[in-house]
Amino acid sequence: MYTLEDVNTNRLPKHVAIIMDGNGRWAKQRGKLRVFGHENGVEAVRKTVESCAKLGVEFLTLYAFSTENWNRPKIEIDTLMKLLVASLRKELDTLNKNNICLKAIGNIHSLPPKAQKELSEVIVKTEENSGMTLTLALSYGSREELKQAIKEISFKVKNNIISLENIDEAVINTHLYTHFMPDVDLLIRTSGECRISNFLLWQIAYAELYFIDVFWPDFSEHHLVEAILSYQNRERRFGKTSEQLS
Ligand code: IPE
Ligand code: IPE
Ligand code: MG
Description:
Layout: E1 15-19, H1 23-29, H2 34-55, E2 59-66, H3 74-97, E3 101-105, H4 113-126, E4 133-140, H5 142-158, H6 169-174, E5 186-189, E6 208-211, H7 221-232, H8 242-245
Parallel strand pairs: 1-2, 1-5, 2-4, 3-4, 5-6
Helix pairs in contact: 1-2, 2-3, 3-4
The chain binds 3-methylbut-3-enyl trihydrogen diphosphate (IPE) (2 copies) and magnesium ion.
């Protein structure tokens, strides 16, 4: 079993993003309702956040609810939102103790008022923390994020706030929900599914992808370390040749 000590902290991914998938199947395997899987997924979130903070990962972004997840049965959506509120309340002190700054990306205004209130409270109360930035992707969809950025930029061009010639990648970055974070270095998806499901399409352009056949509630420190070790064994060439890098 790998532990945090197995990681070479000199070559950590600066930004780890995780598609936390497989809660429903985890529950089904045990003859339980899907919501039982979500309830058990919370502990995996807690442990993963703690491990990443301990290692010194600077940015951890967790896909918790997608724009497409609104199409799920109402009872499941309600449970997920209740779990979100309860976890935020419960974890505030731990976030502060670990010097973690909480942020959220997505169409936050579409969340139930209670969730929005709890979220903004924790965001404000952890704002000054200088350690890891933990970002929850909630009601997040990459295409919606890009659409919204294109609209904002177009508005600014139309009103002569920026000129067409000055639109570059940096300008696009500043109009995304993720403007405060660097690109993703390591993207992990649990549950064995090998797809991106509308997550950070622009931001993962050069991310290392890691798909693992473990349902989210079973994802442990061992699996996290395994993913980071795999990342550290890869050569990130960014279009160059191997010889150019050495
Ligand atoms: C991930 O688990 C959690 C959310 C998408 C909110 P799922 O609920 O998608 O579980 P599976 O993929 O159906 O097993
Ligand atoms: C992606 O999982 C979204 C989250 C983990 C929050 P889904 O379970 O919604 O993805 P698909 O539908 O299998 O692609
Ligand atoms: Mg799923």
